[in-house]
Amino acid sequence: MLDTDFFRRWMTATAAAVDREAERLTALDSPIGDADHGSNLQRGFTAVVATLEKEAPGTPGTVLVLAGRQLISTVGGASGPLYGTLLRRTGKALGEAAEVGEEQFADALRAGVDAVMALGGAAPGDKTMVDALVPAVDALGDSFTAAGAAAEQGAEATTALQARKGRASYLGERSIGHQDPGATSSALLIAALLEAAED
Ligand code: ADP
Ligand code: MG
Ligand code: MG
User: Fold this and answer.
1) In 3-state terms, the chain is what percent helix, strand and coil (to 5)?
2) Which residue puts its alpha carbon closest to atom 13 of ligand 1?
3) CA angle, corner 103, sides to 101 and 107, nearest 5?
4) Which helix (H) or strand (E) holds 47?
5) Ligand 3 center to residue 44 CA distance, Å?
6) CA pair distance 151, 132, nearest whole angstrom
7) How far apart are CA 127 and CA 163, in angstroms?
8) Residue 99 pairs with which residues in a beta bridge?
9) What is the C-alpha separation between 26 and 181, in angstroms, rounded?
10) Can you give the residue ranges of every domain in the chain?
11) Considering only CA atoms, which of 162, 179, 180 is closest in space to residue 171?
12) Residues near 135 by beta carbon (within 8 Å), at least 6 away in sequence
């Protein structure tokens, strides 16, 4: 079972990964965006960790709802409302349970990813975070390790794609040949699940 502490560790591990990879995320956002993805997420997840420490939410659902709300209010870019919606919707789907099973979590994360697609209008293949998140959710029933690998593979596969959503879509064919920053950060988010589980 996954308890409140697991979800807090998930957010902390994501914040640490974003800190570690911030320069790379911003560098990826340079040729096909506005070179702010790393700093956007760094600001957001730093605020998430601070809020979780201060408010000490008592259930898995409230950890994620609070984290999502914080991302929406602190990240100005497209990724803030999208990641915020992902976590908030996932948290809401977890309800008020004190502990959740892995299957329940996989269902909740799927609801979160569906909400991202509804909000941003992106489908798999559009070269966005959705290209890492959808394969991750599909593999989550197997293991966190499988989900992490699927997300990483999905992120790498965005290189060959032409962007159809977000800032990178303005470049048309010139967006081909660059890995999508949001899909890359989504792979970090999913990889952090394994870290949270191992702690
Ligand atoms: P901005 O583009 O506003 O500067 P960021 O640089 O923080 O925001 O985030 C860019 C990332 O957001 C993209 O790499 C992409 O993965 C994701 N993204 C942008 N628009 C959408 C969308 N409509 N649906 C899903 N993801 C999107
Ligand atoms: Mg950007
Ligand atoms: Mg921006």
Assistant:
1) 75, 0, 25
2) 182
3) 120
4) helix 37-55
5) 13
6) 4
7) 5
8) 3
9) 8
10) 2-198
11) 162
12) 150, 151, 153, 154
Q: Ligand 1: does its nearest atom lie under 6 Å from the Cβ of 71?
A: no
Q: Is the pLDDT of residue 199 over 90?
A: no
CA distance linking residue 85 with residue 75, whole number of Å: 12
* C-beta of 37 in contact with ligand 1 (< 6 A): yes
- 101-123 average pLDDT score: 98
| Contact residues for 5 (Cβ-Cβ < 8 A; gap 6+) | none
Between CA 58 and CA 52 the distance in angstroms is: 10
pLDDT bucket at 76, cuts 50 / 70 / 90: confident
**How far, in Å, from the CA of 78 to the mean position of ligand 3?**
7
The DSSP H or E segment spanning 139 is: helix 130-139
Ligand 1 atom closest to 131 (CA): 16
Dist CA 183 CA 13 (whole Å): 17
Express each pLDDT in 141-181 by its tens digit.
Answer: 999 999 999 999 999 999 999 999 999 999 999 999 999 99
CATH architecture of the domain with range 2-198: Alpha Horseshoe (1.25)
Nearest CA to 50 out of 11, 10, 6, 96 is that of 11
